[in-house]
Amino acid sequence: MLSSFYKFPLNTSDIVSKKEADRCDLSASISNFIRLIMTSQFGECAFDDSFGSIIWEMDFDNLTSNQKLKNIITNSLLTSIAGKETRIKDLDISVLIIEDEFEHLYDQFRVKKRLEISLRAVIRATNEPFSFYDKFYIAPLSY
Fold it and tell me: What are the IraD/Gp25-like domain coordinates in residue numbering (predicted)?
């Protein structure tokens, strides 16, 4: 079994110049792949239209309640991650939506929704617990 994986993002200039690409461990590789699933739009991957999550489609949805939005995103992530990341099992995902207010130009305020995503699972190969946490803003999507 492979014990090291390519680090994401992949530095293609190293590969082209025949240098060894940066590597990471199994846990970091799984985290990178989950992050890629979360931030990819359905249909963006040319060879697999089901790769990604619904987050992009919900990016500018201001009419759906936060609770309904949370359920839609949670279900999409559960389906996508369980189907695409086969190195983990017993997946449990928690999504929290928080509205943050930012001061904009001339004392105007802007509200953005922050997604906080926590994930717990078990790594199949080692039977070790795995946890993942990430947060980012939607409307528009940003880190």
Answer: 25-127
